Amino acid sequence: MTADTLAPVAPSTSGATAPKIGFVSLGCPKALTDSELILTQLRAEGYATSKTFAGADLVIVNTCGFIDDAVKESLDTIGEALAENGKVIVTGCLGAKGGDGGDNLVRKMHPSVLAVTGPHAANEVMDAVHRHSPKPHDPFVDLVPSQGVKLTPRHYAYLKISEGCNHRCSFCIIPSLRGDLVSRPIGDVLGEAQRLFDAGVKELLVISQDTSAYGVDVKFRTGFWDGRPVKTHMTELCEKLAEIAAKHGAWVRLHYVYPYPHVDAILPLMASGGILPYLDVPFQHSHPDMLKRMKRPANGEKNLERLQRWRAACPELVIRSTFIAGFPGETEAEFEHLLDFMREAQIDRAGCFAYSAVDGATANDLPGMLPIELREERRARFMAVAEAVSAAKLQRRVGATMQVLVDAAPALGRQGGVGRSYADAPEIDGRVQLLPPEKASKTLKVGEFARARIVGTRGHDLVGVPV
Ligand code: SF4
């Protein structure tokens, strides 16, 4: 069998030879459009194509799984490609099919294939191609690095897993601006994470409007990563991110997580070090009536009990949160409830806004708008409590030795520098101010991990000596 014939792609201007991809497209017109999409992308990225399996660096087989004959033809083609080439990526309907016992049929019949995806998975196929047959960098053509253009420093990056939001919090207009939740395919998300780590990122910050809702919109559809099925679900996402990060000795930090019961399943992963024991949970308030008026997600959950359970499962856990003081109709008793919650919940890092109306938010129509002075006064009272909690928690770290990721280290850190521990997200939390190292031979480098003995605190920051 010969692979589909395609016009050869012009050689790279830098002289580097582009890898050749063999391609077989089986099945119906829907499969054909998937093939066109993948071939277009291959061409756009400068890959060449091969007329034969033997002459290719790698073969892609787009399969059909409709009737028995089509299944047989697809499996036979994969077998031929494996025999003649050895490096085969399978995509299409047969890729999504389970065999007896629930295993993936293609993997069962041909365990040595490099990757298997279902249909409509051009991005996942391209990720597999990049992994197994990377294109040499061509400085004349490749203006953009493989991880994309990042505005953050090289050693940390944000990973957006979804866009939009299904909630309708009364103070927020994000759903009207960005629409309902749309989760990115899990294969795309994991592929981006892999590329970021490959490019030197040491800390990945998972963001969205509601990280715990990841996959709800696609009913937790099964996608593919590295040829294996993975559910579009927060728990599986975290497990896979932890695996990829471990290979690079990197951190994964979760933002915008709501206190739903299924989040409990992430805590063991935090306790074992797979994901940083840090959760950014935007509580906004504690009083159940206030949470209902705000129309907050998980407003019926018993948040104090949940926090206690999380801390029992992972004693190192650091909680960051944001709150609103002076929301319309907030009574003094409801505000006191919030202060009590803050003292009991021992939120490590808390921010607080005095309520301010946002054009278009339904909260603007709620009765009981409070005078601005009162809103500000409550914000200040809240922050006094929050800062006392945070200061006591920081103080308890004095004497400990912590791993820090170095953000700044002029003169190789000989005069000291700035880092962050697992408890500090960039931009929003405190930092670890690093003093000159104890040993003159010790140096610090931006984007690398160091260990620091904590010797004091300074405001929201810790002070440490690199050891
Ligand atoms: S504040 Fe509420 S509505 Fe707005 S993005 Fe967050 S969860 Fe969604």
Written description of the protein model:
With 467 residues, this protein is α/β, with parallel strands linked by helices. It has twelve helices and 20 strands. The chain has helices at 29-44, 68-84, 105-109, 122-132, 174-178, 186-198, 234-248, 267-271, 288-294, 303-313, 332-345, 372-395; strands at 20-25, 48-49, 58-63, 88-92, 115-116, 156-160, 162-163, 182-183, 203-207, 222-225, 228-231, 251-254, 278-280, 318-325, 349-354, 401-408, 417-420, 432-434, 449-458, 461-466. The strands form six sheets. It has a five-stranded parallel sheet, with helices on both faces. The longest helix is centred in the last third of the chain and has 24 residues, at 372-395. The termini are far apart. Residues 165, 167-169, 172, 174-175, 209-210, 297 line the site of iron/sulfur cluster.
